[in-house]
């Protein structure tokens, strides 16, 4: 028998939601083979209309699709579908069958100089006998609220937030072997004197072996002064090439901390309580 289009859509929606074809076949009292046929139909044509025997629905050329994505990996489904002359759903199922998944792009800056990057990597490799220590600063909003919630379809979900302005808090720290060292929070604007005091008083005393200290070229990083401080303690200073944060792994640590804060801060009494609950500080 030919099932209605609405019924077919309902069955496939259930499969997509639960991930179980077997369960859907029991719930809707149809064979698993029928569901597989509908999935195949959706994949090849982008539609679920009943196919008359003898017709030959056009398939997405997967080799062509692969080549297209290599050239334009960030194209929208609608853009790809327009290129291939089919429905976006057909592209969705084709990509799924080919093993493609959406993911966030890892971007670099246009302004990055490849020669300076290569020089940095060369120097870094020449200092491989030293322990790398990565330095950076970051800032936090000290007030978070959860912007999303759940309610029945068509019903508004409400909440309350503070109308006050909250001061940002900054953090400077080092990263060695994946662990945060010498963390210090501050409310002031970072200055060269402030940074050098932290560098000399808090960071250097934590380093118990010769290290190569890596940081960006922020305006308050007076490299000549910092190199002198490093040399006195038997360390080396290696500036990052401009526009190259991807070579400083502490950037990922900052992202993890901020993700944790969004989760726990609404339920903590103070910002520092939330910050210290981060796994990297324990």
UniProtKB/TrEMBL annotation:
Can you give the residue ranges of the Transposase Synechocystis PCC domain? 1-116
Report the coiled-coil segments. none
Q: Give the matching InterPro entries.
A: Homeodomain-like_sf, RNaseH-like_sf, RNaseH_sf, Tc1-like_DDE_dom, Transpos_IS630-like, Transposase_14
- Enumerate the spans annotated as Tc1-like transposase DDE domain: 133-263
Q: Which GO terms describe its molecular function?
A: nucleic acid binding
NCBIfam families assigned to the protein according to its UniProt record, in alphabetical order: transpos_IS630
UniProt name for this protein: IS630 family transposase
Q: Which organism is it from?
A: Streptococcus parasuis
